């Protein structure tokens, strides 16, 4: 029987996408080659946007025991332990969640797996490898193999969330641009003694003799990442005795700590030129690979899943045509490339193994720090590439802010209180007669809502100044928000709003 969607790969990206499609009633089969959850050390940190995404699944990173947040600054220090850089990782991001959370990737995958498994619309086939793919006008055939037998599955769409060595990407003949960038690092996941003093909690040691990352690894765990020096053999350094020798100066020995996982990874920078071909799409590491210095690889992949889910759901519902996948590619590719470059830039600073170059870097960064009076830096909001948003309006193409609100007697963050989807928000302005009949119909087709937001008496009562501040910064009274929480437009008047919404509707190509 034909499915709505087959997803190849039950990593975090494939599982999130399966949940976001499955919970709207779409039939989804996830095909995963490993019988169990992949247990090697990988992601430990996620940003505020991912916490916002997980909250839509009922995972609250502020209270769920699988996550932690240290409410501390993030330091980069030189070999003499002087500050080179200070980053604000203790504040709330404008989207309402903390800037950074820590977790253990297999535990996150287990959380996602349990949510997916509870959906009657989603089935996960573990121990099956996708080996052949062909598509025609109405669907895609995927051959899968478990080592003993092979089967052919058919679906309207196939998504390759099958990681860096993606079979789907290669079967589609999609071209990968390899930026020729690589560094080898030894990654150690540790369970230190309960009274281990980790202060600062999160920092980089920019010592040219051994660039090192020292960070939390999720509750009860710590992560050490040691750069493999150009003179070293990566197989040799991966041996447990080498790992323990590197950990000794940090007070960890086999007697007081457990080496949970160790692996040498080659950090690379790659991206795929096109992310879809007819009825097949790729997402996550299959589409982009970045060194983990910014902790953004998985985050970028989870954004892909959200961006793809609202489009695939609308295509499968018959609201939008398959052409909408073009904007998935154009929006997400530019966003992911920003993070690839950003991660490379961080790596260029961190991975200096030459003493003279390190001394130049230290002098430059310390001077910068003095000039700004040791003020911590904050992250920027990154814009999507061109797509379903109005380039000429402030804040558009960026993640929307989120404040605390009261709606229908419930109080809390906007997303959990009001919900998610297409929304037109009128800040402290009436909504009567705001939309033309045609625009009201378009919003209805999208399953969207028109809401006033402001003091008591509005549809949604604001409980903090997040929205008033945002509207003041953007000089706007109206905002169009998309199902992935990105801003499609902000507008200063009803006429301006109407023009923006016309652009959005036209770009979406809503089917009649
Ligand atoms: C050392 C390290 C540290 C990192 N730290 C961070 C961090 O702190 N924060 C962050 O955001 N990111 C981080 N990342 C990146 C993050 O781990 C990845 O971006 C993320 O795992 C990608 O998820 P994915 O679902 O796209 O792919 P994967 O997790 O690779 O999952 C793909 C799945 O597809 C399956 N598969 C592959 N081929 C087939 C096939 N033919 N048939 C069936 N199944 C198949 C695989 O078995 C796998 O389970 C780090 C990565 C590394 C290596």
Structure description:
There is one protein chain. It is globular, with a radius of gyration of 24 Å. Strand 13 (212-216) and strand 14 form a beta hairpin. The chain contains 13 helices and 25 strands. Among the domains are: 3-68 and 101-178 and 269-350, FAD/NAD(P)-binding domain, CATH 3.50.50.60; 404-508, Glutaredoxin (3-Layer(aba) Sandwich), CATH 3.40.30. Helix 1 (12-22) runs parallel beside helix 7 (297-317). It has helices spanning 12-22, 48-55, 105-117, 167-171, 234-237, 240-247, 297-317, 325-350, 355-371, 414-417, 437-445, 466-474, 494-508, and strands spanning 3-8, 28-32, 45-47, 74-78, 83-87, 100-102, 122-126, 129-135, 140-145, 150-160, 176-191, 203-206, 212-216, 222-227, 258-272, 276-277, 280-282, 288-289, 404-407, 410-413, 423-427, 449-454, 460-462, 478-481, 487-491. Strands 1, 2, 7, 8, 9, 10, 16 and 17 form an eight-stranded mixed β-sheet that branches. Strands 5-4-12-13-14-11-15-18 form an eight-stranded mixed β-sheet, sandwiched between helices. A seven-stranded mixed β-sheet has the order 20-19-23-22-21-24-25, with helices on both faces. The two termini are 28 Å apart. The relative contact order is 0.13. By secondary structure, the protein is α/β, with parallel strands linked by helices. Bound molecules: flavin-adenine dinucleotide.
């Amino acid at each position: 029987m034909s499915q709505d969607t087959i997803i190849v790969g039950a990593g975090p990206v494939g599982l999130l996408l399966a949940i976001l499609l499955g919970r709207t009633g779409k039939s989804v089969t996830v095909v995963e080659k490993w019988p169990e959850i992949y247990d090697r050390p990988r992601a430990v940190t996620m940003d505020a946007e991912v916490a916002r995404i997980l909250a839509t699944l009922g995972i609250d990173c502020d209270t769920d025991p699988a996550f932690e947040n240290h409410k501390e600054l993030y330091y980069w220090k030189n070999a003499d332990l002087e500050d080179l850089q200070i980053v604000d990782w203790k504040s709330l991001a404008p989207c309402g969640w903390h800037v950074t959370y820590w977790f253990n990737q297999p535990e996150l995958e287990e959380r996602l797996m349990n949510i997916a498994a509870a959906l009657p619309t989603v089935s996960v086939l573990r121990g099956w490898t996708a080996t052949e793919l062909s598509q025609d006008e109405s669907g895609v055939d995927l051959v899968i193999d478990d080592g003993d037998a092979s089967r052919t599955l058919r679906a309207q769409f196939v998504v390759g969330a099958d990681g860096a060595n993606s079979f789907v990407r290669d079967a589609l003949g999609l071209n990968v641009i390899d930026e020729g960038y690589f560094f080898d690092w030894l990654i150690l996941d540790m369970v230190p003694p309960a009274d281990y003093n980790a202060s600062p909690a999160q920092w980089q040691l920019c010592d040219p003799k051994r660039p090192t990352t020292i960070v939390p690894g999720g509750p009860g765990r710590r992560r050490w990442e040691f750069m493999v020096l150009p003179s070293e053999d990566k197989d040799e350094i991966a041996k447990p005795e080498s790992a323990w020798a590197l950990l000794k100066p940090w007070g960890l020995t086999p007697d007081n700590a457990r080496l949970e996982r160790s692996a040498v990874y080659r950090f690379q920078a790659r991206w795929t030129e096109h992310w879809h071909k007819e009825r097949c799409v790729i997402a996550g590491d299959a589409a982009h690979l970045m060194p983990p210095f910014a902790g953004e690889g998985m985050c970028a992949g989870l954004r892909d899943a959200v961006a793809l889910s609202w489009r695939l759901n609308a295509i499968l519902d018959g609201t939008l045509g398959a052409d909408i996948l073009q904007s998935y590619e154009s929006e997400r590719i530019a966003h992911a490339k920003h993070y690839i470059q950003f991660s490379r830039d961080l790596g260029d600073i961190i991975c200096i193994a030459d003493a003279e170059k390190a001394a130049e870097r230290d002098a430059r960064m310390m001077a910068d720090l003095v000039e700004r009076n040791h003020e911590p830096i904050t992250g920027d909001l990154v814009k999507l590439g061109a797509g379903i948003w109005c380039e000429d309006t402030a804040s558009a193409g960026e993640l929307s802010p989120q404040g605390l609100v009261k709606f229908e007697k419930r109080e809390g963050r906007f997303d959990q209180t009001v919900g998610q989807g297409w929304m037109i928000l009128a800040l402290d302005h009436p909504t009567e007669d705001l939309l033309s009949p045609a625009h009201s119909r378009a919003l209805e087709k999208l399953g969207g809502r028109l809401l006033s937001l402001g003091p008591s008496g509005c549809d949604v009562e604001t409980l903090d100044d997040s929205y008033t501040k945002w509207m003041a910064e953007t000089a706007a009274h109206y905002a169009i928000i998309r199902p992935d929480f990105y801003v499609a437009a902000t507008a200063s008047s009803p006429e301006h709003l109407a023009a923006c919404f016309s652009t959005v509707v036209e770009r979406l190509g809503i089917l009649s």
